[in-house]
Specification:
Blueprint: H1 2-23, E1 31-32, E2 59-60, E3 76-80, H2 87-99, E4 103-108, E5 114-116, E6 120-122, E7 126-127, E8 136-139, H3 145-148, H4 151-160, E9 166-169, H5 173-179, E10 187-188, H6 195-201, E11 206-207, E12 213-215, E13 219-222, H7 227-240, H8 242-251, E14 263-264
Parallel strand pairs: 3-4, 3-8, 4-7, 8-9, 9-13, 10-11, 12-14
Antiparallel strand pairs: 1-2, 5-6, 12-13
GO biological process, one term: regulation of DNA-templated transcription
GO molecular function: metal ion binding
Domain Heavy metal binding: 31-61
């Protein structure tokens, strides 16, 4: 009799569990547009598809909380600009980074006016004496030898290495980072006509031609001029995801970005 009661009790528990499982409904997945600070970022969708506002592919809302640095909109980026800096070297990445929601500020050795290609007058926001800390430092071509051969500037760059997360160079800005020891034992690229010169200047660095950018993890170098846009978009993808970077490329109407044309040595 006891055996019969025990069997009946176990059977009853099993039935209750089955009924309970049957009542559990799968949580409905919600989709959103990759965020970029626009008003439609908060709109949710019940199905996968394309955002009707910006034509980007919708992503699961749950991915926003897990994607590395997805909401880090307060990333600060320091642009070091020297006199005669190449205009597109810095203007292209500046367009990308500001569109991505990053805060960009400019620094030069002093706050004196400088010119870009003898045409554009620039007043740096800071000098190397009062520049605030930043998450990222970026260096550009155009009279790169001026900061490269300036002990005060190189010393300042070295002093910021410990508290800077990422270093990026565009074009011959690689010479500046190289002089500060940032490219030691890494792989890099630069303006096509300066590949051999950079290799000679940095014997421990592997300098590559025919590549739009090289990513060593926290140090990125790009080829010349317009390649800075590619490198900047790659950095945005690194921080906020490739879908978000594609959205930025669409916003600035840059259809030349082909991520595969860059080399990723280290994904960190």
């Amino acid at each position: 009799m006891r055996k019969i009661i025990l069997i009946a009790f176990i059977t009853l528990i099993g039935c209750n569990k089955s009924i309970g499982h049957g009542n559990i409904q799968k949580e409905k997945q919600i989709f959103v547009c990759p965020p970029c600070g626009e008003s439609y970022d908060s709109i949710t969708y019940e199905k996968e598809g394309i955002c009707p506002y910006c034509d980007m592919k919708l992503i699961p809302k749950t991915s926003l909380g897990t994607k590395k640095n997805a909401n880090k909109k307060d990333l600060t980026i320091c642009f070091y600009l020297q006199d005669n800096v190449e205009l597109l070297d810095f203007a292209g990445p500046m367009e990308v980074f500001t569109a991505a929601g990053f805060k960009v500020f400019t620094v030069s050795k002093t706050k004196d006016r400088i010119t870009s290609q003898g045409v554009l007058t620039i007043i740096p926001e800071y000098s190397i004496q009062d520049a605030p800390k930043s998450d990222v430092m970026v260096f550009f071509g155009g009279s790169h030898s001026t900061p490269t051969n300036d002990p005060a500037v190189i010393s300042w760059i070295k002093s910021r290495k410990k508290n800077t997360d990422y270093f990026i160079s565009v074009c011959t800005g690689a010479f500046i980072m190289g002089k500060a020891g940032i490219l030691d034992n890494l792989t890099a690229t630069t303006f096509h006509s300066q590949i051999e010169a950079l290799q000679k200047a940095l014997p421990t660095t592997k300098v590559l031609p025919n590549v739009r950018f090289v990513d060593n993890g926290n140090v990125i170098t790009t080829a010349g001029i317009s390649a800075g846009i590619d490198g900047a978009l790659h950095f945005v993808a690194k921080i906020k995801g490739e879908e978000f970077a594609k959205k930025i490329a669409k916003i600035i109407e840059y259809d030349k970005w082909i991520p595969e044309q860059g080399l990723i040595v280290n994904k960190k």
